[in-house]
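Re: the multi-chain job from yesterday

Posting the exact lines I submitted so nobody has to dig through the queue logs.
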Amino acid sequence: MTGQPERTHLVTGAGSGIGEELADRLAERGDRVVRLTRDVVDLEDAVAVARWATDFADDLERLDSLLHVAGTVDLGTVAELDLDVWQRHLDVNLTAPAVLTSHLLPALRAAGGTVVFVNSSAGLVANAQWSAYAASKFGLRALADSLRAEEAGNGVRVTTVFPSRTATPMQEKVHEQEGRTYDASRWIRPATVVDSILHVLDLPADATIPELVIRPR
Ligand SMILES: NC(=O)c1ccc[n+]([C@@H]2O[C@H](COP(=O)([O-])OP(=O)(O)OC[C@H]3O[C@@H](n4cnc5c(N)ncnc54)[C@H](OP(=O)(O)O)[C@@H]3O)[C@@H](O)[C@H]2O)c1
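And the result, structure tokens for all chains:
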């Protein structure tokens, strides 16, 4: 035993895809993993998210990492997208991460922890049909950038990961909406994105990785 305190991580979107794989890999290492799945709290409901985060933060002395992985996507032109779709993208992809982060910062500061935002290549370039998703992810990058600047002096590291298409249920849904045949072998494996996130978390204390872009070869 090294005498190190047990490491604790909160993973959103831990019920499938990248989030599930990340939560499993951290648990396999013996870390404590809190899996924020939809049955725990619906990230569309900002008031419920704030309530859950307040309760969770109450019993929490330190949090080593806050891993924002949950996300929602629906394609459509600006002419087609209705208010509900816009609201869901902004609530799940942007407001929920902001609310969770704000409540959990004291525990992150206590641990010298890391906040990881799983963004997207659509958070760097917004193509036709991707407005709601891309706008929410551009906003997520802004949230990360402000947080990084605010928390550098408090010992909290902030990383945005920008994966391109990754073979998960979300990508299958995107293919359906694009009317394309889905072939998982063409896209990045979720395990590869998880390897990159673990590298960020395991980085020695002398450095930080502000942003990481991951593309298929
Ligand atoms: N797959 C890609 O090609 C790709 C590329 C770039 C970035 N990303 C990003 O990677 C992250 C992980 O996505 P993924 O690819 O692993 O897809 P995924 O398997 O669909 O995972 C998304 C997760 O978010 C959860 N979620 C969505 N809406 C929620 C809500 N209202 N309340 C609680 N949880 C909610 C989902 O839960 P339910 O299953 O209950 O809906 C699911 O577990 C997302 O942020 C996504 O934008 C994905």
